[in-house]
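User: Could you go from structure to sequence for me? I need the amino acid at each position, not a summary. Structure tokens:
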């Protein structure tokens, strides 16, 4: 949502707030100006982002417009973008750097950082170059659009035919739209296993990860698919979208379904006969097939938990025996699929079922679904999964539909190099990370990042000690939990060590890459990712693994690991810079750090103790105190709205966004306290052209700059349905409303926060 849709109020020229501001500025003692290129650059960025009317706007009424009004004017969304914010710009800057790396020769003769190949032993340097060549081959194959277009739909049809062979519908079966009974369902596990190996999770999503109640043990998890078909279950209630979705499926099925009247049918009939199957069914009406698939998806969506429940550990942690799970979904035979996916020497009778009610409903849905519908559904999942890897007219109806659903130009697509940088990051991300670090990170940056995160931890402990609604015994355990939080800054040095070329080579040895087979490269990358996850079974949880590659502009807190992770990608200008006054980095990156640490005590993190165990470690009175204060956040954010599909107000989901909103408030509070401590030790310089603001105020300006952004209506609606984060503008307005420090820094009339935990 752009600033034009926010509520703006001009300050009265001689009002009391302006008078207070003037007195406040007179009291402020200017520090020495920083006039280095880095400081001038930082100043200009902030000044460009500010509203041209920033001196006439009341920060206490609409800080988002004051800080981001200029950003809104300077940034337009490209036709292929549904939304964008400062983080998007940072990501694209990183993408550009990665493009330059991938389109240049191996960097053996250029100037290098301490991470350079020039510092490597000759034997290791040759391995480093082999790794780089693998990156280049993957990138070049993706960029070879002529070859990709020449292959057209054929690579996708190979997968479709394989699915149809594993789950055939013969002519004798077709004439009766028969439900799945008896032997009619026996090959469901075979097709699900095949699709799972390619990274697809139709019907049920299976994975392996840390056991919430025993975080050093890897356990199998079964959950509803993260996406049924449409991006959110709400869309299945929108008749206009459903009609367009059905029409889209019908158009694509006419082209790719092996049983429809198309040249595919002849090819597939030969395939099937050569593999011993009977005469396939000829289906002439793709619209009927599309209607059946959408109705099937609609039932699955209705059975799926709401997003806020899907993220609630108290609801998704349901240990069960494999035998018990199979009794829930006998058609799927989870035990059979798991046995094929797991290492041969691994045995278990236990898994975590995220939604037993979904499994029960799935069994009933499958019992009343015909084999023909299910086969078409599997084929449609293949199309959806790999549509972006194919250049063919047959797929364009789906691409157009997906773009429209996000508010993009229907015929738009990202520049090819952007797609290919992402492709390489997805499939060979740790090799790419090694070359990114060389260009974009330094030991000085890593040390500064460690300093900020350590300061945040220290400040959060101080806040816990002053918290009155938590019992003393809980505060002591909470402090121990903060002390034990593992902070990962910049890049991994284990699992794999990205600075050790042989380690990277071994890590990716099973990924087969050639510069002329883009689609096959994609499949190889997917198989590797699935295999890597399932190979962890039977081993202790690898706490050295990272869940994000180094160029990623993001960060995370992992509850079972009790760790906060900050890839080097987010430690870039304007969020983080070692060469500018520290209040800017503490305001943006410090608040991000505090945000991730606050997740350790939000609506999810509070359920995990200092060792990452999901357990009840809070007293009843502390839980009640938390719930009362958390409800304030739920109610506060639920009042924020955007225009919905019918242009009526669509409210932010206060429950879905609760954890993130708590983390935003706690993050800014801890970061501001940490900055105050640092400034007392080492005064910071001022920035040129920003004399209107105090350094405290610029801390908050830097925070808000991170969230400057805009969104198309459709993309904003989709985020309300699915995103656990509030809209960007609400993350500014809501967090500032909850910040006592902000209100005091800007001399707001009302000093009390709307909601407060720490």
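Assistant: Here is the amino acid at each position, in order:
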């Amino acid at each position: 949502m752009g600033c034009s849709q926010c509520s703006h109020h001009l300050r009265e020229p001689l009002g009391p707030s302006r008078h207070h501001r003037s007195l406040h500025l007179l009291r402020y003692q200017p520090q020495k100006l920083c006039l280095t290129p880095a400081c001038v650059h930082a100043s200009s960025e902030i000044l460009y982002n500010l509203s041209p009317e920033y001196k006439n706007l009341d920060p206490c009424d609409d800080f988002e417009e004051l800080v981001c009004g200029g950003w809104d004017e300077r940034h337009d969304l490209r036709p292929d973008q549904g939304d964008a914010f400062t983080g998007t710009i940072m990501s694209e800057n990183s993408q550009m750097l990665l493009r330059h790396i991938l389109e240049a020769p191996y960097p053996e003769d250029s100037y290098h950082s301490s991470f350079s190949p020039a510092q490597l032993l000759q034997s290791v340097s040759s391995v480093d170059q082999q790794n780089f060549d693998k990156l280049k081959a993957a990138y070049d194959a993706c960029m070879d659009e002529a070859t990709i277009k020449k292959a057209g739909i054929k690579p996708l049809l190979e997968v479709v035919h394989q699915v149809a062979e594993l789950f055939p519908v013969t002519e004798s079966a077709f004439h009766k739209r028969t439900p799945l009974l008896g032997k009619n369902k026996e090959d469901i596990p075979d097709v699900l296993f095949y699709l799972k190996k390619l990274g697809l999770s139709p019907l049920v999503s299976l994975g392996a990860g840390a056991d919430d109640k025993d975080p050093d043990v890897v356990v199998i998890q079964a959950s509803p698919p993260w996406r049924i078909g449409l991006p959110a279950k709400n869309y299945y209630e929108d008749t206009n979208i459903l009609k367009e979705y059905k029409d889209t499926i019908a158009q694509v099925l006419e082209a790719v379904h092996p049983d429809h009247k198309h040249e595919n049918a002849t090819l597939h009939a030969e395939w099937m006969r050569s593999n011993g199957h009977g005469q396939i069914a000829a289906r002439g009406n793709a619209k009927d097939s599309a209607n059946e698939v959408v109705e099937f998806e609609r039932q699955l969506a209705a059975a799926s938990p709401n997003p806020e429940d899907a993220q609630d550990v108290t609801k998704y942690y349901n240990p069960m025996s494999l035998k018990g799970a199979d009794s829930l979904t006998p058609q799927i035979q989870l035990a059979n699929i798991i046995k094929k996916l797991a290492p041969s020497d691994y045995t278990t009778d236990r898994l975590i079922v995220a939604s037993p009610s979904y499994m029960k409903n799935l069994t009933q849905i499958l019992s009343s679904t015909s084999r023909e519908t299910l086969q078409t559904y599997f084929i449609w999942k293949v199309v959806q999964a790999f549509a972006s890897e194919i250049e063919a007219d047959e797929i364009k109806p789906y691409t157009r539909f997906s773009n429209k659903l996000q508010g993009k130009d229907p015929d738009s697509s990202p520049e090819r190099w952007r797609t290919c940088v992402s492709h390489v990051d997805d499939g060979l991300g740790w090799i790419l990370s090694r070359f990114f670090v060389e260009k974009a990170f330094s030991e000085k940056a890593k040390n500064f990042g460690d300093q900020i995160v350590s300061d945040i931890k220290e400040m959060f402990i101080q806040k816990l000690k002053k918290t009155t609604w938590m019992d003393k015994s809980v505060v002591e355990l909470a402090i121990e939990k903060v002390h034990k939080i593992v902070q990962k800054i910049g890049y991994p040095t284990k699992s794999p060590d990205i600075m050790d070329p042989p380690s990277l080579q071994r890590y990716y040895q099973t990924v087969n890459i050639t510069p002329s087979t883009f689609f096959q490269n994609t499949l190889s990358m997917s198989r590797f990712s699935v295999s890597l996850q399932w190979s962890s079974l039977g081993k202790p949880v690898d706490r050295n693994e990272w869940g994000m590659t180094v160029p990623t502009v993001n960060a995370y807190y992992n509850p079972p690991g009790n760790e906060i992770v900050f890839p080097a990608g987010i430690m870039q200008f304007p969020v983080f810079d070692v060469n500018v006054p520290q209040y800017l980095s503490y305001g943006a990156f410090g608040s991000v750090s505090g945000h991730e640490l606050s997740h350790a005590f939000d609506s999810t993190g509070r359920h995990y103790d200092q060792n990452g165990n999901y357990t009840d470690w809070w007293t009843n009175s502390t839980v009640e105190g938390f719930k009362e204060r958390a409800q304030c956040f739920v109610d506060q954010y639920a009042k924020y709205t955007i225009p919905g599909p019918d242009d009526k107000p669509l409210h932010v989901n206060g429950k879905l966004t609760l954890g993130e909103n708590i983390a935003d408030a706690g993050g800014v509070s801890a970061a501001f306290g940490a900055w105050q401590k640092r400034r007392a030790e080492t005064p910071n310089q001022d920035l040129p052209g920003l004399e209107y603001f105090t350094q405290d105020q610029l801390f908050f300006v830097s925070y808000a700059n991170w969230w400057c952004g805009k969104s198309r209506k459709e993309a904003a609606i989709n985020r309300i349905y699915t995103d656990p984060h509030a809209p960007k503008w609400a993350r500014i307005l809501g967090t500032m409303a909850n910040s006592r420090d902000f209100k005091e820094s800007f001399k707001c009339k009302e000093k009390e926060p709307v909601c407060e935990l720490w």
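One structural detail worth keeping in mind: The CA atoms of residues 210 and 713 lie 38 Å apart.
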